From TrEMBL:
Annotated C-type lectin domain residues: 102-201
CDD domains cross-referenced by the UniProt entry: CLECT
Matching InterPro entries: C-type_lectin-like, C-type_lectin-like/link_sf, CTDL_fold
SUPFAM superfamilies in UniProt: C-type lectin-like
Protein name: C-type lectin domain-containing protein
SMART domains from the UniProt entry: CLECT
């Protein structure tokens, strides 16, 4: 493409930054410059990678008018949200709590972790597929969509999204079309309706169902700044 420079996430925007000290804007440990940066930089500079010369960065003004391409790092992140595939906590059935989670229980577990069931919009569908494929999860997982009986439509709980990639034969209100507890699960290997050749789609499941007894999974979306073991473990996994 004739690209000679590409923006990276490296900059000196952090408060009280010493002149010439650069950090990645995610603030996540594990990223290091491929070579020392020039020391003649000024505050509010950004670093661009010299394409074809991977051992060198070039310092440029972040607000400059020069057209420079950019490099995006695809992982589990979307803005300030991290998407976490969560297994059901190990519980003793004598406690009176089912080990499998229905939709409402999964929703509550995400809230307990400081997040909510995942909403699929934009690039989130790609992220979700990568999450599940990386962990070899091919069974249905709960997501943040259910049926609104007053409007007689399926809605995302906490998002405005047009994503409704239904599996073939869906949405099916089963077993009772008037039941108020119709929730939605995502299947990474499911075949969508229509002529699409891709995989990955959503289907209706009764909210009280415990999905996949041997693979009890759901996906939470949690703010990256949330401090809990689930987020920290996933951050470490992403950076490996």
């Amino acid at each position: 493409r004739g690209i000679t420079l590409a923006w990276t996430g490296l900059n000196d925007h952090k408060d009280n930054t010493i002149d010439g000290t650069f950090e990645y804007l995610t603030g996540i440990d594990g990223f290091v410059p491929l070579s020392p940066l020039p020391s003649n930089s000024i505050l509010k500079d950004c670093a661009a990678l010299q394409v074809g010369n991977e051992n060198k960065f070039e310092v440029r003004s972040c607000g400059g008018t020069t057209k420079i391409w950019s490099i995006c790092k695809m992982n589990y992140f979307r803005l300030s949200i991290i998407f976490v595939p969560a297994e059901v906590p190990q519980r003793d059935e004598s406690d009176g709590v089912l080990t499998e989670l229905n939709w409402s229980d999964a929703d509550q577990e995400c809230k307990n972790k400081g997040g909510e069931l995942m909403n699929i919009c934009g690039m989130n569908s790609v992220i979700l597929r990568r999450i599940l494929r990386k962990r070899n999860i091919d069974t249905p997982v709960w997501i943040g969509m259910n049926y609104d009986t007053s409007k007689k439509k399926f809605f995302w709980r906490n998002a405005v999204s047009k994503f409704k990639r239904w599996c073939r034969g869906e949405p099916s209100l089963n077993p009772d079309p008037l039941a108020p507890n119709q929730c939605v699960a995502y299947i990474v290997g499911g075949k969508p309706r229509g002529r699409g050749t891709g995989k990955g789609c959503i289907r209706v499941e009764p909210c009280g169902t415990t999905i996949a007894p041997n693979k009890k999974m759901f996906v939470c979306q949690i703010k990256e700044s949330t401090n809990n073991d689930l987020v920290n473990d996933t951050l470490n996994e992403v950076e490996k």
